[in-house]
Write a structure and sequence with these properties.
274 residues, alpha/beta, two-stranded antiparallel ribbon, 17% strand, elongated, disordered C terminus
Length: 274
């Protein structure tokens, strides 16, 4: 089933699922839904059961070697993937992802990679997973949302697609917003405040907005935001902080080289933000 009217240059995502009615779901609302309606991106859902080979539309069977649960059949999945992507050797098949807890962790870097791919195919597993031979034969990329288990790949697919769609040109109203969000520069995001400037919390305590944000001094605001982003990342995500420090050192070394050659400083140079 196709959702929305795809434009000539639309980013296309195809979802193979046992529950096509779960889509577009939240993706049909707000900015993503408007972009889908306007043809900025297109969504195609494919019912895996349509490729079953018996009257019961069976898509799973018991695992060899015993054990609990069921495993999705390779013949059914192969038929579905081949029809949708053209097979593992099709030149224009795009990237084909299987959502699995053992896959590469989905992060902002991978999201940017996927947005740059014109066509993305997502296979949503169920039960105990899919036959390993399908992963090997179709060279599926395994991707995980984190160290937890969901009832199926569909909720993960919705999250992955949402993360991608919001980076498409024309989806977000403020083009500067995406560049300042968590993970875009290897840091968690700085705190946000809005009116009123003085707010009384449920316990009666007055809470005020940091003075620097009321100063109107853009350089001071940028410096404060960078410092806060660094503090929060250092305290809450030491793994991200370590990688950020490595990138920062590399950028500072590159800045030294650029200064010697008269070139402009980079991201972490004077006056930059986090």
């Amino acid at each position: 089933m196709n959702h929305g009217a795809a434009g000539p240059l639309a980013w296309t995502v195809r979802v193979l699922t046992l529950f096509p009615e779960m889509f577009p779901g939240s993706l049909g609302l707000s900015l993503a839904g408007k972009a889908l309606e306007n043809g900025v991106w297109s969504l195609e859902t494919v019912d895996i059961r349509a490729f079953a080979r018996d009257k019961h539309r069976s898509v799973d069977d018991t695992p060899f070697g015993g054990g609990p649960g069921m495993v999705m059949r390779p013949d059914v999945l192969d038929a579905a993937l081949t029809q949708v992507t053209g097979g593992p050797d099709a030149p224009d098949r795009g990237r084909v992802i299987y959502l699995s807890p053992r896959g590469r962790l989905l992060d902002q870097e991978l999201v940017r990679e996927l947005v740059a791919t014109p066509t993305l195919t997502i296979l949503c597993g169920r039960y105990e997973g899919i036959d390993e031979r399908v992963i090997e034969a179709h060279r599926l990329e395994e991707v995980s949302l984190g160290d937890f288990v969901l009832s199926g790949g569909e909720p993960a697919a919705l999250c992955l697609i949402d993360a991608c769609v919001r980076l498409l040109p024309g989806v977000m109203g403020n083009v500067d917003t995406a560049g300042e969000e968590s993970f875009e520069w290897g840091l968690l995001e700085y705190p946000h405040y809005t009116r009123p400037a003085v707010w009384q919390d449920p316990r009666g305590q007055e809470r005020v907005v940091p003075e620097v944000l009321l100063s109107g001094h853009h350089e001071r605001v940028r410096a404060w935001r960078l410092a806060e982003a660094e503090r929060i990342t250092r305290d809450r995500r030491p793994d991200l902080w370590g990688r950020y420090e490595q990138r920062k050192r590399a950028e500072e070394e590159a800045k030294t080289i650029r200064k010697r050659s008269g070139r402009r400083p980079g991201r972490f140079g004077e006056g930059s933000e986090g």
